[in-house]
Amino acid sequence: MYIGIDVGTSAVKAAAFDHAGRELAVEASPVGLALHEGRVEQDMYEVYSAVVGVLGRLTVRVPGPVDLAGLTGQGDGVWLVDEQGLPVRSALSWMDGRAHELLDRWFADGTFETVFRRTGSAMFPGCPGPLLAWLDRHEPKSLDAAATALYCKDMVFRRLTGAPAGTDVSDASMPFLDPRTRTYDDGVVELLGLGHRRGLLAPVGDPITTAEARGEGLPAGTRLANGPYDLPACALGAGVTSPGDGLLIVGTCLAALVATTDLDLTGEPAGLYISTDRPGHRLRAMPAMVGTAALDWVLSTTGVRHEEVDALLAETPPGAHGVRVLPYFAPSGERAPFVEPRLRAELTGVSLESTKGDLIRATCEGIGYAARHCLTAAGLTGTLAVCGGGTRSSAWMRLLADVLGRPLRVVEGEVGARGAVMAAAERHGIPLDTAAWTRPTRIVEPDADRAAYYSVGFEDHLGRLTAARDRSR
């Protein structure tokens, strides 16, 4: 039995797989978020306790020896720990917005663009650079008490194994890592005013050294590997490794990833390059803020239940009778494939004749256009895999295939946990049938006529988006 652990933002999951990649069982536990005036934090003790809990339940439910475990989790944020790996304060989530004024200044003075040109990382308020700089200005005692600024999975790995503090190249990619050397760019650290805090950055393993579990949740002696974090873990679990192939994660936020061996630091600063275990191989990532959260808001506002979505999409034609949605509902605006913190959603073409189905379809179409924008910017030229909670709607997947104009390799189940196991197996030299482990659940083909219609609609979407961006400035 192999176990994949995925420490998400709102839930911790552990999945058991057999050697052929069949998902045997999954255990999950919710974890809380403390939200207050744009600040989003998580209790590290609660998160770690949830990890131990789901592992304990899973190993009881699926008895037998655990041959290997892989760990992944949410990226970005700041998880400060002391020399023993214990929390110094609550973790600052990737969703945290307290550093937005600092980032605004970096936009204005050119720091934001300079960092992108050097590292390929378009910073946002919840990534470690702005958060560490904010703490240094407003809460220096927390940094004084910390030994290391880790990422989520690194904190869990340290506690499970007692291994020295460290991270892997994927998490380190934002925002300090030079993707060419796969080491921290000390010039960027200085540029963000953090030179005197350089010692807090977690040492980067390439990949990070594996270790054995101490017996909390996993049986003592279980071989455990740390990383990659959730986005590249999902790419690995979906079989997205060949240059040009892509993955779209349809979750609370959209994440578009394209495998590449190129490094283009020109063009509009947005997204990031995620380094992987293989030197020279990267993922061009456009992790947008728009996603299923936009649809959830529309469903809640209209009183439509999730189980009604497929029927409403089926009874409403493409174009939603003229209703259009720019689905940028996030309070922090958008971060990919462009950065526009003040951009807001727009709903147009509505009349007294518009139906709930029109609103739902227009929202799904708008999210699809945003996904196409991200994938185009990321350089998609090959096959496209899709995973995430949105794949549960078969009608939405058909609509998405039409909007994107390409077949979708739908991969269901705990894809991030699957990728974590595959990474762990590679690091330990355990051969796996990767084709079997990444086999899609189904293939969704686009309809040629609808794809042609949506190709025109996408150009209209880009025009309306340009006008909305101009108004937001």
Structural account:
By secondary structure, the protein is α+β, with helices and mostly antiparallel strands. It is globular. The protein folds into two domains: 2-232, ATPase, nucleotide binding domain (Nucleotidyltransferase, domain 5); 292-410 and 444-472, Nucleotidyltransferase, domain 5, CATH 3.30.420. β2 and β3 form a beta hairpin. 54% of the residues are buried. The chain is 37% helix and 20% strand. Belongs to the FGGY kinase family. This is Erythritol kinase. GO terms for molecular function: kinase activity.
The number of distinct helices, counting runs of at least 4 residues, comes to 16
Q: Class by helix and strand content?
A: alpha+beta
- CATH fold topology of the largest domain: Nucleotidyltransferase, domain 5
Number of domains: 2
Strand arrangement across the biggest beta sheet: 18-19-17-16-22-23-24
Distance between the termini: 53 Å
Query: How many E-type strands?
Result: 24
How much is the average pLDDT?
A: 94
Strand content: 15-25%
Rounded radius of gyration (Å):
22 Å
Helix content: 25-40%
Low-confidence stretches: none
Q: Could you give me the name of the CATH homologous superfamily of the largest domain?
A: ATPase, nucleotide binding domain
CATH class term of the largest domain: Alpha Beta
CATH architecture of the largest domain: 2-Layer Sandwich
User: How is the biggest beta sheet arranged?
Assistant: 7 strands, mixed
Domain Carbohydrate kinase FGGY N-terminal: 1-200
Domain Carbohydrate kinase FGGY C-terminal: 271-425
EC number: 2.7.1.215
Keywords: Kinase, Transferase
